[in-house]
Amino acid sequence: MKKKNNFFLVSVLMVVAVFVLVYAGVSLTSNMGKSKAQITAEDAEKQLNKLYADITVKTEEPVKGQIDINPIDVAGSLPDIAKFPITVDNTNDHFVEIFSSTEKAGTGIDGWLTEAGTEFNKANITVNGKPASVKIRNIASGTATDYIQYGKYIPDAFTPSNEFWGEMVKASGVKVQLVSKRLVGNVPGIVIKKSKYDALVEKYGSVNVKTVTEAIANNEFAMGYTDPFASSTGLNFLVTALHTFDSSNILGDKAVQGFEKFQSNVPFIASTTIQMRDAAKSGILDGFVLEYQTYINAADLKGGYVFTPFGVRHDSPLYGLGDLPPNKLDILKAFAQFVTQENYQKQANEKGFNALNDYKSELAEIDGNLLSSAQKVWKEKKNGSKPIVAVFVTDVSGSMNGEPINRLKESLLMGQKYLGRDNSIGLVSYSSDVTIELPIGKYDTNQQSMFVGAVNSLQANGGTATFDGIVVALKMLQEELKANPSAKPIIFVLSDGETNEGHSLKDIRSLIEAYKVPIYTIGYNANIKALQNISSINEAASINADTDDVVYKIGNLFNVQM
Question: In what order do the strands lie in the sheet with 287-291?
Fold first, then answer.
């Protein structure tokens, strides 16, 4: 009897073992050849479907709207110039107004020109028999160029970070007089992780833009750079890269083809320097562009990174604009002479300027029209062979009623002119529920017309289920990616308030991490911490806009990311 019991026990164990092996085999077979990320994606899809099933989703029948075929009205989108702070105010009526780039007209480390300008006004310097003063406005070089070249607001003078912006202003037809080639010294560069820098030196012998672009084209180096329409360093890098591919013709076929190959392996184009710095901190980038003055003052970059200069110098030239009367031109000359005195240059040294005076650019002077053409090439080629698939998620809750919803519509209608024809877009609105206003489709004339119609039909009412809207957008994108796996998905969220209905950030955070979809958020008349947290998950930008500048900011964001 004991032998029979033993035999029975062994038989049972063998059967159990067979089932275990079969299960293991099935499990092994189902996961064979799959990475951990792929398995996680399958789990994410199940979670996405579960969350989506909990949401009330309606679908509107798209209605075509009237397409505006007029060119982009940049001047019309620019906010009142008062939006940009005056950091030095004039002390008398015998003065000049100067637009200055932000790295020198702010405060603290970035306040060199602010401090020097304040001292100039205190010195009570006489020009042509009268005490003179300056008014300095802190405004980014690219934005300042837009105000000037489109005639929205033209100050007496302009000191951008580099000479490119002066050339572009000149090409636009505004009279430009060079007062000083250099107010203070600075240099742009690629900031590279020390370990990656050593690897590049070992393989290529040296590190410069040529070897970096080659390494990127070979998918050996991950680098980010900033928007060349807005950023001095971004524009400089674009022109230097094109020059590297063909020094004889930066817009020739050879240069453009080289740029396309390089650009196809660039993982990141930042709308702002802050966004790029945040991405670098996350560890996804081997290198990124930055001015030396910023680099040397960044404690988190010291020791672990190497600075490699490139392109034209950022020596803050000073230009007089328009038909300046002689007395104003004389004030500018006196101001330039004042701030370039030894004691003020020493103060600049202490803030990180004037550190790489031996560096000389290999680039010759470039005409402003050529620079504008280079920006257009970048816009056309920046996505390489990967078209963008974007879903716009718009807040139509009750708090958006009136001026907010009207402004949101205006910003989307103007911003859609920046969308590339090779890309695909969809539109979702949300309040208490979520509505698919426009399914994803290629941005041809028909889709553009339906997008305009969908935007015009938006009405504000109900609660704010922001994260439900994002879930629906993720669902739309995942379905689209099954048909077009090479596309790059993006979500844009426009909202004015915290979520008060539906799912929470905690509910969907893992989904966003798994799908790695960047979510760009525009906080409308509010500082929405929850939306900032969403954007930071996958290194996207979060913009705090208001009724004055939301149109301009959204236009810039779409121009970069679409």
Answer: 268-270, 223-226, 287-291, 188-193, 305-309
Q: How far is CA 377 from the centre of its chain?
A: 17
Asked whether the predicted pLDDT for residue 460 surpasses 60, the reply is yes
Residue with tokens 């470039």: 366
Secondary structure in 3-state letters for 210-250: HHHHHHHHCCCCCEEEECCCCCHHHHHHHHHHHHHHCCCCC
What is the spatial distance between Cα 217 and Cα 321, in angstroms, rounded to a whole number? 41
What are residue 522's DSSP bridge partners? 494, 543
Angle between helices 368-381 and 232-245 (to 10 degrees): 90
User: Considering just the CA atoms, what is the radius of gyration of the chain in Å?
Assistant: 28
Question: What interhelical angle do 36-53 and 505-515 show, nearest 10?
Answer: 140
Q: Which tens digits make up the pLDDT trace of 315-370?
A: 999 999 999 999 999 999 999 999 999 999 999 999 999 999 999 998 888 999 99
pLDDT in tens, 59-97: 998 889 988 888 778 888 899 999 999 999 999 999 999
Question: How far is residue 270's CA from residue 559's CA, in Å, rounded to a whole number?
Answer: 11
